[in-house]
Inverse folding.
C-alpha cells in the first residue's frame, strides 16, 4: 500500500516537473524537441546572446530517486557568455550532470551522462596568479570547444575538460578526468583518462 502510494506520488511529481521545465525553457527562449522529460527541476540558465538547444526525447534527471545511486545535485545546463552555444542531441539522458559553456559544448545523439558528470569548455579562472582570484582579466581564461559525439557513455563522476573530443560509441569510466581527446569505439578510464580497450565489431 505504502509502496504504491510512493510510486503514484513520484509519477505525479515527474509530470509536474516536466511541465514546469518545459515552461521554463520556453520562457528563456531555449529550443527543445518533442517528448522532453524532467524528473525533478533542472537548473538551466541562458546568458543573453547565447543559445541552448536540446533535441528530441531528452531525459533530465534532477531528483534523488531518478537514479539508483542518487545525485549530488540537480542537472545544470548553463551558458556563461554572449555567443556561447550548448547543443544536446536526440535521445540523450542526463543524471545530475553539469554542462557549462563560454564557447561551445556539443553533445551528440544517444549520449548517456552518468551521475554528477561535469562537462565544460573553459578553465573558469585565469592561470596567472595575479588574475586568478577575481577574474581580473577574463580574456586570459582558457577556453576551447568540447565535443561529445554520438552514442558516447560518460560514467558517473567523470570530468570532461575543455578542448576535448570524445569519439562516437566510446565509454568513459566512472571517476575519470578526460583532459585530452579520446578516439571512437573504445573504453577510456583513469586520471588522466587513457584508452584501455578498443570495442570490436562497432562501426
Amino acid at each position: 500500500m505504502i509502496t504504491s502510494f510512493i510510486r503514484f506520488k513520484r509519477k505525479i511529481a515527474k509530470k509536474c516537473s516536466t511541465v514546469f521545465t518545459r515552461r521554463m525553457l520556453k520562457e528563456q527562449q531555449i529550443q527543445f524537441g518533442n517528448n522532453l522529460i524532467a524528473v525533478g527541476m533542472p537548473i538551466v540558465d541562458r546568458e543573453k546572446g547565447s543559445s541552448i538547444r536540446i533535441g528530441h526525447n531528452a531525459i533530465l534527471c534532477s531528483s534523488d530517486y531518478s537514479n539508483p545511486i542518487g545525485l549530488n545535485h540537480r542537472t545544470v545546463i548553463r551558458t556563461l557568455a554572449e555567443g556561447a552555444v550548448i547543443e544536446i542531441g536526440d535521445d540523450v539522458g542526463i543524471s545530475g550532470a553539469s554542462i557549462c559553456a563560454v564557447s561551445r559544448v556539443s553533445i551528440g545523439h544517444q549520449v548517456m551522462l552518468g551521475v554528477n558528470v561535469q562537462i565544460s569548455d573553459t578553465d573558469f579562472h585565469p592561470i596567472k596568479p595575479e588574475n586568478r582570484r577575481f577574474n581580473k582579466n577574463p580574456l586570459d581564461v582558457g577556453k576551447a570547444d568540447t565535443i561529445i559525439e554520438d552514442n558516447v557513455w560518460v560514467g558517473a563522476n567523470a570530468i570532461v575538460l575543455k578542448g576535448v573530443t570524445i569519439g562516437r560509441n566510446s565509454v568513459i569510466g566512472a571517476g575519470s578526468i578526460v583532459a585530452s581527446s579520446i578516439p571512437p569505439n573504445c573504453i577510456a578510464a583513469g586520471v588522466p583518462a587513457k584508452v584501455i580497450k578498443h570495442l570490436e565489431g562497432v562501426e
User: Anything to note?
Assistant: The mean pLDDT is 90.
